[in-house]
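STRUCTURE:
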């Protein structure tokens, strides 16, 4: 039987494909049946001793890599895209909205069940990065 203290334990998630975050935050956090994935960008899988490298330079490559990075954290926390209830997309250029929607629809075309809610906003990201995505999942 789970004690109240155990049921409220918070677990930080960092898959082996990810570098240590550059500031004091977690790539993902699971608490009970809630899993929040921090904003992920299109960095290729981590190589020890090397700085993170973005995929691409195009939006398609970065978006697909960003999805892979979010999914790695979902899996690390025992979740999948089917558990996602909210996805937030951050773009650096309003001109990328239509292309991102095409990539997004293609990526999630075989998703079982209803799609997650989604918000898209426009932001500034470090040079060379075009997209950031976070997700909120509820398990069970």
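SEQUENCE:
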């Amino acid at each position: 039987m789970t004690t109240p203290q155990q049921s409220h334990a918070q677990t930080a998630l960092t898959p082996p494909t990810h570098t240590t975050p550059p500031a004091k935050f977690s790539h993902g956090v699971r608490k009970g049946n809630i899993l929040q994935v921090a904003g992920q960008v299109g960095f290729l899988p981590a190589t020890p001793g090397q700085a993170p490298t973005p995929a691409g330079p195009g939006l398609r490559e970065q978006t697909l890599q960003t999805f892979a990075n979010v999914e790695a954290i979902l899996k690390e926390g025992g979740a999948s895209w089917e558990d996602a209830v909210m996805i937030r997309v951050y773009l650096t250029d309003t001109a990328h909205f239509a292309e991102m929607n095409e990539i997004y629809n293609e990526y999630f075309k075989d998703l079982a069940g209803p799609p997650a809610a989604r918000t898209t906003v426009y932001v500034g990201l470090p040079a060379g990065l075009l997209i950031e995505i976070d997700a909120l999942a509820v398990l069970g």
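REMARK: Helices lie at 4-7, 59-76, 97-107.
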